[in-house]
Design brief:
alpha+beta; Thrombin, subunit H; 4 domains; 11-stranded antiparallel sheet; 6-stranded mixed sheet; about 50% helix; globular
Length: about 700
C-alpha cells in the first residue's frame, strides 16, 4: 500500500476506527476499489494533492467541467466530446458518430471513404445530434426523499420519489426553460443531484476519417493495447446559423502531445459500472447472466457472418456484436479470476465490519447483504426464463402473444387494447436469417431450461424422446401458422366468442402463444419484483457506503459528467513490456506484416500520404485513467487543461474494472494528438482546422 493510500485510508476511516476495533482485523481494504470517476460537486482535492502534489482550484474545476460535453440525441446520449476551439469546434471519436455520418452521406460513402469539409460552408448539419454542457448542479436529496416514512414499503418509497422527482424537474424547467434538466441518482440513490445542461442542437460534421483509419485492427485489436487506431472526428456547434462562441469554455490544444508518466485528466460521461454490487450479485452475473449473453452473441455472430458478406448493411450489427462479445467476455474473465474476486470479498468484508462496528449503521443497514443474497438467489432462478420465454425472432409467436394479452381479462382494459392494436397491425415477416437465429434460440433454451420445459415442448416439432430434438420442421419456425394472415386475425377478434376460439384453436402459432404467454408473464413479474427489490436494497448499500466512506469514494457511473485522474504509463504484459505509446511506424509496419489484408489494411489516403507523414509521431498511448463505455470521445488533458489525447477504448485488462477498480495493468487507450495533427496536416488536407486548433493553443 503506497503512501497516498495509507494516508487516505486513515482519513476516510477515522470515524469508523473510533467505533469499531473489528476493522483492525481487515487489512486488505483498498480505498480506490470504487474507482476514480469523481463528480464535480465533490472533487477529491485532498487525494489529488497527496497523489500528485496538485490541488486544483474552483476555476480549474469549472473550466474542466464546461469544456467537456455529452454527445448523442437529446434524451439518449451515448458518448463524450469536448470543445477544442473558441468557434464551437468539437472533438470526439469517429465511432461515436459513425451512424450519423451514414445518415447524412446520401449517395456517398463517407463512412468508408471519409469526409473533410474545406470551409465552414461545407460543414454538414447532422439532424437530431446534440451535445450537452453541464452548467449547474444542486443537491436535491432532501427534496427527492420528502414525505417518505420509515413504514413505507419499497413500492411506496419508489412512487413517492418518482413524484418528487417530477416536481423538481417541473420547477427547474419552469425556472430555466431554455435548459435541459436531469435528476441524477448517485451511490444507488443515497444522493440525488439536479443537473442543468445547456444543449447545442445544431451540430455539423467537419471531419470524419475513413472507417479503416478509425477501426484499424478490427475485432482482433479491439480492447487491446498496443494500438494504432486513429479514431477521431470533428464536429461544430452552431447557434443562430453561426459557429457557437465558445471562447470562455474550450480546451486549448497542446502542440506537443502526451508524455510518459505525466499527470492527465479525463472529463467525460462514463455509462455504467457495477462496483456497488455485492459478491452474491456478481456471482449471478458470472454463472448465469454473462454466459447466456455470450452464448447468444457467439452463435449469432457465426450465423450472421455469411449474410453480412452479401448484405453490407449487416456489417454494423456484426461489429456491434463482436464488440459486445469481447467486452462481456473480458468482464466474465474478471469474475472468474479468484484473486480479483477475493479482493472484492475483502472490500465487502471491510465494509460490513465498518457497518457492524457502529450501532446506528448496523440497525439501518446490517441486514442488507443477507437480503440481497436472498434476492440474488431468486434472480438466479428466474433469469434464464426471462431470456428464453419470449418470441425471439418469430413474428408468428410474437403476434400470438399479442393476441393472448389482448384476450387476457386479468389485464386492465388499456393494456389489452394496446395489445389488440399491436396484433392487428403487426406485419409478420421472416427469412432464412431470422429462422436460423430462432432455431438457435430454441436450442439454447433447451440447455438452460431443460427439454421437459413446457415452452420447449410446445415449440419442438418432434415428440419428446431421448433422441435429438428437430426444429427445422416446426410449424412455428417456418411460419405456416394462420397468424401470418391478417384476415384470420381480424376475424378471430371480431367474433363474439373470440376468447373461446383462441383457447380451442389448433393453429400452431396460437398453441405456442397459449403456453408462452402465462410463462412469460410470470417470469417478467418475478424478475420485475426482484429488480425493484434489488434497487431498493441497492439504495441502502449506497447509503451505507456514503455513511462509512463519505464522498472520498467515487459513485458508480451514471452516463453523467465525471473526471478521472491518472498517469501516462505503460505496463508489463505477455512476458514483455507494453510501451506508454505507439508510433506511426508501427501503423505502417503492422499493415506490411499482415499483407495489408483486412482488418490490418491501411485506408487509401494513408497509403497515398506515406511520404509526407512523420512516422516517428505518436499514434496511441496508455494511461491509468478510470474509464468505461460512454467515455469514448473524452478529451485527455494535462493539468493546465490542454488537450494531449482522446479516449477511444480500454485494454482487455480494464474490463473487470466494471466491478472492482485496479490500475496495475488496466489502462485507458487514447489517440495521441500527434497522430491527429499528422492526419489533419498530411492526410486529409485539413490545414485550416489545424490552424484553428493552433490559434487557441497556449
Amino acid at each position: 500500500m503506497n503512501q497516498y493510500r495509507s494516508g487516505l485510508l486513515a482519513t476516510l476511516l477515522a470515524p469508523v476506527l473510533a467505533t469499531s476495533a473489528a476493522l483492525l482485523a481487515q487489512g486488505n481494504h483498498d480505498p480506490l476499489a470504487m474507482g476514480k470517476m469523481w463528480t464535480f460537486e465533490n472533487p477529491p482535492l485532498a487525494y489529488l494533492e497527496q497523489e500528485y502534489g496538485f490541488k486544483p482550484d474552483q476555476k480549474w474545476l469549472d473550466s474542466l467541467r464546461l469544456g467537456a460535453l455529452r454527445l448523442g440525441e437529446r434524451e439518449n446520449p451515448w458518448c463524450s466530446a469536448s470543445f477544442v476551439s473558441p468557434k464551437g469546434l468539437i472533438m470526439t471519436n469517429h465511432h461515436c458518430v459513425r451512424d450519423q455520418v451514414a445518415q447524412v452521406q446520401g449517395r456517398n460513402d463517407w463512412v468508408k471513404d471519409g469526409f473533410a469539409a474545406t470551409s465552414l460552408d461545407e460543414e454538414v448539419k447532422v439532424p437530431g445530434l446534440t451535445v450537452h454542457q453541464l452548467i449547474a448542479q444542486e443537491d436535491v436529496t432532501a427534496k427527492v426523499n420528502e414525505g417518505i416514512g420509515d413504514d413505507d414499503d419499497d413500492l411506496m418509497k419508489t412512487e413517492k420519489r418518482e413524484a418528487n422527482t417530477k416536481k423538481i424537474l417541473d420547477a427547474a424547467n419552469a425556472a430555466h426553460p431554455d435548459s435541459m434538466h436531469q435528476v441524477v441518482s448517485l451511490y444507488q440513490g443515497a444522493v440525488h443531484q439536479l443537473y442543468r445542461y445547456r444543449v447545442f442542437d445544431d451540430i455539423r460534421l467537419v471531419l470524419a476519417v475513413n472507417l479503416q483509419c478509425a477501426h484499424y485492427g478490427g475485432d482482433p485489436d479491439n480492447f487491446t493495447y498496443p494500438r494504432w487506431s486513429i479514431d477521431f472526428s470533428f464536429l461544430r456547434a452552431y447557434e443562430d446559423g453561426k459557429p457557437a462562441d465558445t471562447t470562455a469554455n474550450y480546451f486549448r490544444w497542446r502542440m506537443e502531445g502526451a508524455k510518459d508518466n505525466e499527470i492527465v485528466f479525463v472529463p467525460g460521461n462514463p455509462g455504467n459500472t457495477n462496483r456497488l454490487m455485492t459478491t452474491a450479485q456478481l456471482e449471478v452475473q458470472r454463472d448465469v447472466e454473462y454466459p447466456i449473453i455470450l452464448e447468444q452473441l457467439e452463435n449469432g455472430m457465426a450465423i450472421l457472418k455469411p449474410f453480412s458478406k452479401r448484405a453490407p448493411g449487416l456489417l454494423t450489427t456484426l461489429l456491434s456484436w463482436e464488440n459486445s462479445f469481447k467486452a462481456i467476455g473480458g468482464m466474465l474473465d474478471g469474475l472468474k479470476d479468484e484473486a480479483l474476486l477475493t479482493k472484492k470479498r475483502d472490500h465487502e468484508a471491510h465494509f460490513r465490519a465498518a457497518v457492524k462496528g457502529n450501532a446506528d449503521w448496523q440497525a439501518a443497514y446490517g441486514d442488507v447483504w443477507d437480503t440481497i443474497g436472498e434476492l440474488a438467489a431468486r434472480k438466479r432462478a428466474v433469469h434464464a426464463k426471462v431470456q428464453f420465454y419470449n418470441p425471439s425472432y418469430s413474428g408468428v409467436i410474437e403476434r400470438g402473444v399479442a393476441m393472448a394479452k389482448a384476450l387476457d381479462e386479468t389485464l386492465d382494459a388499456k393494456e389489452r387494447e394496446a395489445a389488440r392494436k399491436e396484433a392487428l397491425t403487426m406485419q409478420v415477416r421472416g427469412n432464412i436469417l431470422t429462422e436460423a437465429l430462432l432455431v438457435d434460440h430454441f436450442e439454447r433454451a433447451v440447455r438452460w431450461l431443460g427439454r421437459r420445459d413446457a415452452y420447449v415442448e410446445v415449440v419442438a416439432s418432434a415428440p419428446m424422446t431421448d433422441g435429438p430434438l428437430v426444429w427445422k420442421d416446426s410449424l412455428a419456425v417456418v411460419g405456416t401458422s394462420k397468424l401470418t394472415d391478417n384476415g384470420f386475425v381480424s376475424a378471430l377478434f371480431e367474433a363474439e366468442d373470440a376468447a373461446e376460439r383462441f383457447q380451442k384453436s389448433d393453429d400452431v402459432g396460437i398453441r405456442v402463444a397459449r403456453v408462452l404467454w402465462p410463462l412469460m408473464r410470470a417470469a417478467e413479474r418475478e424478475s420485475a419484483a426482484v429488480d425493484k427489490a434489488l434497487a431498493a436494497q441497492g439504495t441502502r448499500i449506497g447509503r451505507a457506503l456514503h455513511a462509512v466512506y463519505g464522498t472520498g469514494t467515487s459513485p458508480d457511473a451514471t452516463m453523467t459528467l465525471r473526471f478521472s485522474d491518472g498517469r501516462v504509463k505503460g505496463y508489463d504484459y505477455n512476458g514483455t513490456v507494453a510501451p506508454w505509446s505507439t508510433t506511426l511506424y508501427g501503423l505502417y509496419g503492422r499493415s506490411v506484416a499482415f499483407g495489408n489484408e483486412y482488418p490490418f489494411d491501411l485506408a487509401e489516403p494513408w497509403i497515398a500520404a506515406k511520404s509526407k507523414v512523420d512516422l516517428s509521431s505518436r499514434a496511441c498511448f496508455a494511461s491509468t485513467n478510470d474509464i468505461v463505455g460512454g467515455n469514448s470521445g473524452s478529451a485527455v488533458v494535462d493539468k493546465d487543461l490542454q488537450v494531449v489525447g482522446l479516449v477511444f477504448d480500454g485494454n482487455i485488462e480494464s474490463l473487470p474494472n466494471d466491478f472492482y477498480f485496479t490500475q496495475e495493468v488496466a489502462r485507458a487507450v487514447n489517440v495521441h494528438t500527434d497522430a491527429i495533427v499528422q492526419a489533419l496536416k498530411n492526410v486529409y488536407g485539413m490545414g485550416w482546422i489545424l490552424e484553428e486548433l493552433r490559434s487557441g493553443a497556449r
